[in-house]
Amino acid sequence: MNLELFLPELSLAATAILVILLDLFLPRKGLLAVVSLLGIVVSAGFTLTMWGSSQSIFNNMLAVDNFAVFFKLLFLGIAALVILASTDYLSNLTPFQGEYHALVIARFQGEYYALVLLSALGMMLMAATTELISIYIALELTSISLYALVGFLKDTKSTEASLKYLLLGAIASAVLLYGMALIFGLTGETQLGEIARAIQVMAPSTILANPALMLGIVLLIAGFGFKIAAIPFHMWVPDVYEGAPTPITAYLSVGSKAAGFAIILRVFYSAFGLPDGLSQSWGLIFAVLAAIGMTLGNVTALPQTNIKRMLGYSSIAQAGYLMVGLAAMGVAPAAGILGRSGVLFFLVAYAVANLGAFTAIIAISNKINSDLIADYSGMSKRAPMLSLALTLCLISLIGMPPAAGFMAKFYIFRGAVHNGLLWLVIIAVLNSVISAYYYLRVAKVMWFGEPASTEKVSSSGALQIALFLASLGVLLLGIIPGFMMKLAEAAARIFVS
Predict the structure, then answer these.
(1) CA torsion angle for 463, 468, 474, 476 (degrees, to 10)?
(2) How many angstroms separate the CA atoms of 17 and 419, rounded?
(3) Which tens digits make up the pLDDT trace of 397-418?
(4) Each residue of 290-312: pLDDT tens digit?
(5) Are 46 and 7 in contact (CB under 8 A)?
(6) Which of 117, 157, 334, 379 could form a disulfide with 446 if both were Cys (CB 3.0 to 4.6 A apart)?
(7) How many CA atoms lie less than 13 Å away from 311 in the CB half-sphere?
(8) Degrees (nearest 5) of the Cα angle 59, 489, 407?
(9) What is the C-alpha separation between 202 and 214, in angstroms, rounded?
(10) Is pLDDT above 70 for 435?
(11) Cβ count near 130 (within 10 Å)
């Protein structure tokens, strides 16, 4: 059964259980974060040894290949940065969060870190699953952990956000499951490779005219669209991002999105990549959703006054940019990897930039007791390094050099142009210009506004490490992107036929 190929997931699950048990006995709760980080390092070590493998385990339900390894390392890195940023959030609550928040955090730190680890475990499984039932189980493991984390503060906003996320997530899961049922009913298979073979033996003229197949694909897009915050399945994003603890907002914005795109890439290429007419059909759907998502996400972000809500709408727009890569993947020839590798690189660049932005926000908001953009006025005089890091991350989200976002958009737009989607790239570029207004507005307030106080903004060593690593990633991926792009191409090459 090659159980050693499952060691990354087993070690992470064991760490989550260990954290819960240690929480019962350890008086110093800060050690729980250390144990969680050590578990992530161990899991990453096991994962690294599997680079270059091409195997399946558990009766072909899980793949151990470069694609899975790439995303597992990404999820582990995201979880590590979230835990580092969380230590500052959990230990430096102010009256802005309230005494009740402090009591909740002090009591449930073990559960907090365990849920972060379990959600990362679900994301790792999502990247590796090659069978519909396993996909659904992995997705629900991730989702249930995130529902609990969103409502972790147990106040009015947090509870409302969690309930909204839960109810809408349940509907999305039902839609996804119905789509899977239609695909199974048509093909009699749940394994992605077998589904592809069942479709390819159909007469080409009947595939696009098959209502069960086309409705099943549309429902899969809807179900996965909720997970990546794509329009029109985005209605949960602003309220959930605002109400959740800030580290969890960061986690949702990058971890959940990356997991959703990982499973979309595997499902749609492995099961629906051939014939070309079928892939071009769902590629066009993603192209339309990308154009609408970029536009509405950016336009709606313009008037926002709360920085977490602004980044929520920004996340919707970023999903639109990523779907440009999915559209390119659909219309590309089977041997092309520009679209797929561009999506992978973009996800890494977006992860470091958004995590860096939210990490800086955690430090600043905890001090000024506000998430309002206007209250960031003159922050460069009170916290120059935090302001510099936040500005760098915002520049990356715009897609300006020398930050990672510029190269990410270059790669993904190049793939789209190469495959005949110039019109979509034009829309994307125009939207990038629009986004510059609300991103740079935050920088303007920080650097040219008058501070409300001269008191310096301090942060913990763990948060500073997280912010340094994220900022370094933004710069390195922007200046020397070749190494990461080669890894992305190697991971995407498993789909080349």
Answers:
(1) -150
(2) 47
(3) 999 999 999 999 999 998 899 8
(4) 999 999 999 999 999 999 999 99
(5) yes
(6) 379
(7) 30
(8) 135
(9) 14
(10) yes
(11) 23
CA distance 86 to 363: 10
Which tokens in the block code for residue 249? 């907002």
Tokens of 184: 């199974």
Q: How far apart are CA 123 and CA 134, in angstroms?
A: 12
- What span, in angstroms and rounded, lies between the C-alpha atoms of 231 and 220? 14
Instruction: Tell me the two tokens of residue 308.
Output: 């977490």
Answer whether 411's CB lies under 8 Å from 322's CB. no
Nearest to 316 by CA among 291, 303, 328, 298: 298
| Beta-bridge partners for 372 | 306
Q: What is the rounded distance in angstroms from the CA atom of residue 446 to the CA atom of residue 360? A: 12
3-class state of residue 306 by DSSP: strand
Among the listed residues 72, 194, 120, the one whose alpha carbon sits nearest the alpha carbon of residue 491: 72
Reduced DSSP (H G I as helix, E B as strand, rest coil) percent helix, strand, coil of the chain, to 5: 80, 0, 20
H or E stretch at 144: helix 132-150
Q: Say how far apart CA 55 and CA 52 lie, in whole Å.
A: 10
Task: Decide if 123 contacts 252 (C-beta within 8 A).
Answer: no
Amino acid at 1: M
The C-alpha atoms of residue 334 and residue 226 are separated, in whole angstroms, by: 27
Q: Is the pTM of this model over 0.90?
A: yes
Dist. CA 41–CA 51, nearest whole Å: 16
Cβ burial, residue 99 (10 Å; 0-12/13-18/19+): exposed
Q: Coil, strand, or helix at residue 131?
A: strand
Angle at 319 between CA 313 and CA 325, to 5 degrees: 155
DSSP 449: S
Tokens 């990490």 locate to: 359
Question: Taking Cα atoms as reference points, which of 37, 48, 99 lies closest to residue 73?
Answer: 48
**Residue at 130: amino acid letter:** T
Query: What does the DSSP assignment read for 172-224?
Result: HHHHHHHHHHHHHHHHS--BHHHHHHHHHTS-HHHHTT-HHHHHHHHHHHHHH
Residue 126 above 70 pLDDT? Answer: yes
Q: Give the containing element (helix H, strand E) for 343.
A: helix 338-368
| Number of helical (H) and strand (E) elements in the chain, helices listed first | 22, 2
